[in-house]
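Hey there, shall we discuss this one?
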Amino acid sequence: MPHAFATSVLHITTGTTETITDLTAECEQFLTRNAASGDGLLNIFVPHATAGIAILETGSGSDDDLLATLHTLLPADSRWQHRHGSPGHGRDHVLPALVPPHATLPVIGGRLELGTWQSVCLVDTNVDNSDRQVRLSFLGQ
């Protein structure tokens, strides 16, 4: 029987380079354990000031395109008021305004309702902190 509410925390190591990490399989495994064949919502939340959650196609270059776009919009230079950490680290603190730290997605019949090419991804441009947590929460019936 599915739970009305279930939550779990993923521990992700992103490394020392800017990354986009596909979390879709982890989300599906969480739903298998907690949603059974129920309907509801999956909330994905990253409690960090320098990371976000994006829904995008991966593996065809779109993930690299997103990182390139973020480099254009948020250059790693000395323009930022927030100056601790690596040069340009202030831009990492602006990232969540463009790539929010959360996403809420429909779950139908216990399965994540994504489009054919959509994946749930952690976007992390902060090379100073490679240890990330991602909270998955299912609310449904």
Summary: Helices lie at 24-34, 62-73, 90-98. The chain has a mean pLDDT of 94. The first strand starts at residue 5 and ends at 13. Residues 16 and 127 are 5 Å apart (CA to CA).
